[in-house]
């Protein structure tokens, strides 16, 4: 779900992480009434579509491989249960050019309680993992988010707590994780269109620490962001809303310590019955993700990813009910 | 014909060492086949065949990459846009069908 990055990944500011923040407020030219900027987290999850107050990720759909089936049953306006089956290969990190895939299957049972002020989500998987997420609005401006994962395997259990404070035209976030992970971020609106911010993190377990800065400029039709971190990451992205249904996005990521460069281009078509996202990468990767509404409450999902360099092909399909 | 392809590049095969002289280079046919022009022509033909093979192979590879990428990125888009257009047409038709009667009916 949007807004909940895996614990540990957010603060370490890696190429894939470094998210915080979001939301576009209303615009006024009065400098004492600047809009509230988007949370720092979401800045890096680029390609945020320009529909005001609704952010969607164009360049990073949740691609998957295998079959996925999700069923959500609402028992109450606030409480619902979810059943989910997944069958497919899971990739194992392997040294060498060959990707190691092992077919796995699991069933996941979950319960969600969703209230305007409090959201509780819990999931249990048949491979022995338990995840829990809490999002609570303590006051109008202060909110608490926590997530935790317990697992059978040693060293795979972790938890994280975030405190978000939203001021008139700024946001701050404090993040505490297990393994003495500590992070803080701040973002401020400078003009109705421009906002800038910074983050600091310290990971005690890996003895890493870093600082990062970000800037975001937005318009009715486009959003441009830039981000630099002391972990060596430089990222820039640009999203343009070409029409009501179409957005195009492009992304550039450069790590000046490891000299890794990645550029990607993508499109996002939001039609009435379907949503199609496609992306082409400079690593020789082409991917597409289609979500189609077959009926009321019935969604069909198709995911494809072709990596020409590694000759790795992943295709997945799924059904989401409810 | 060994090819010494440099990193990322293609190069023609090395020149072969010159053939040793045939013993009876007196007959006209032998003289002809041993002449410079013929051997140069033979080399040119081999090089052409080699280059054509490489070109064909890289064109084939490029066509495969372009084709599969097109299939993944563009074909679903065309299909979905077509469906959306059909839906719009249908709705327009329905609208025009339902729009007409209320105007003509209560004229009794």
Automatic annotation (TrEMBL), chain A:
Entries under Gene3D superfamilies matching the protein: Porin
Pfam family, one: Porin_3
Keywords from the UniProt entry: Acetylation, Ion transport, Membrane, Mitochondrion, Mitochondrion outer membrane, Porin, Protein transport, Transmembrane, Transmembrane beta strand, Transport
An example molecular function term from Gene Ontology annotations: protein transmembrane transporter activity
Membrane topology: Multi-pass membrane protein
Domain of life from the UniProt record: Eukaryota
Subcellular location: Mitochondrion outer membrane
GO CC, one annotated term: pore complex
GO biological process, any: monoatomic ion transport
Family that this chain belongs to: Belongs to the Tom40 family.
Name of this protein: Mitochondrial import receptor subunit TOM40-1-like
Source organism (scientific name): Linum tenue
Species classification: Eukaryota, Viridiplantae, Streptophyta, Embryophyta, Tracheophyta
UniProtKB/TrEMBL annotation, chain B:
Entry keyword annotation includes Mitochondrion: yes
Similarity remark: Belongs to the Tom22 family.
InterPro entries reported for this sequence: Tom22, Tom22_pln
Taxonomy, superkingdom: Eukaryota
Record-given protein name: Mitochondrial import receptor subunit TOM9-2
Primary location recorded for the protein, binned into one broad class: mitochondrion
Keywords: Membrane, Mitochondrion, Mitochondrion outer membrane, Protein transport, Receptor, Translocation, Transmembrane, Transmembrane helix, Transport
